[in-house]
UniProtKB/TrEMBL annotation:
Every HTH araC/xylS-type domain range: 158-255
Membrane recorded as keyword: no
Pfam families tied to this protein: HTH_18
Designated name of the protein: HTH-type transcriptional regulator RipA
Molecular functions (GO terms): DNA-binding transcription factor activity; sequence-specific DNA binding
The UniProt record lists the keyword Signal: no
UniProt keywords, alphabetically: DNA-binding, Repressor, Transcription, Transcription regulation
Organism name: Streptomyces griseoluteus
């Protein structure tokens, strides 16, 4: 993801062990790798965030919420000025959710429940617990929108994806990438499918979408984002972004302005 500006956290801000609460974080703020004994939901009411684990990276724009099960080591990076909400999920509720990190769509009811649980202290005994069961029920029924960018084990594939991470906009073909890492085009194509569960084209498109979300969230124009992330023209970027995110980049940015 882009690292062109140094993080400048605002206050209050969470430390790596935080499980619940709200904070305003500036562009580029990071939480170092850590884990929790219980599950955790992280929601960007404004802004966007990336959650990284050994299995890869998940990105959540402002209409998604990240889920990390207990004991998964993970880190977070935030994009744009982020209104982040951290919510603890007790072990007895975790079993109702998927057993791997993921990202879910946020319904209007789920959004309001997440905000209510992180905005203010509990006013009546048991109120937060009852509302948390509503959150879990909503997540069970929510569509899983992982925006997952898996990482490889094979050394050749790891070298190839590292080159793409370094410069997502590069127009390198699979054959050219293979020559740079010492693998044939057919071998590299097979590795993308067997290790990462997707084609080279889909993996690189997902990588570019990750970068595009960060840039759009930080205020870059749609046209400039398209060029910076490797699309030959804004139209092809808009089509790819809409297919993955479910809305055009312009509408996504308009939603960010509405939330702020």
């Amino acid at each position: 993801m882009p690292k062109d500006r140094q993080p400048t956290p605002t206050h209050p801000h969470p430390d790596a062990t935080s499980l619940q609460g709200a904070a305003t974080l500036s562009h580029g703020y990071q939480l170092a790798p850590h884990s929790h004994a219980e599950g955790q939901l992280v929601y960007a009411a404004a802004g966007a965030l990336a959650t990284a684990t050994e299995r890869g990276t998940w990105v959540a724009p402002a209409n998604r919420v990240t889920w990390t099960p207990p004991h998964f080591t993970h880190s977070h990076r935030f994009y744009g000025e982020t209104d982040v909400r951290l919510l603890q999920v007790p072990l007895h509720l975790c079993a109702q959710l998927v057993d791997h990190p993921s990202v879910f769509t946020v319904s209007p009811l789920l959004r309001e429940a997440l905000l209510a649980l992180t905005d203010s202290p509990e006013r009546r005994p048991g109120a937060h617990g009852r509302l948390l069961t509503v959150v879990v029920d909503e997540l069970v029924d929510a569509a899983e929108q992982s925006l997952h960018l898996p990482e490889a084990d094979d050394d050749r594939l790891r070298a190839a994806t590292a080159l793409l991470h370094k410069d997502p906009a590069q127009p390198t073909t699979l054959a050219e990438l293979g020559r740079r890492v010492g693998a044939g085009e057919r071998t590299l194509s097979r590795l993308f499918h067997t290790e990462l569960g997707m084609s080279f084209h889909r993996w690189r498109t997902t990588l570019r979408i990750h970068h595009a979300l960060a840039r759009l969230t930080d205020g870059m124009s749609v046209t400039d984002t398209a060029v910076a992330c490797g699309w030959s023209n804004p139209s092809s970027f808009i089509d790819a972004f809409t297919a993955v995110i479910g809305q055009t980049p312009g509408r996504y940015q308009a939603g960010l302005r509405h939330r702020s």
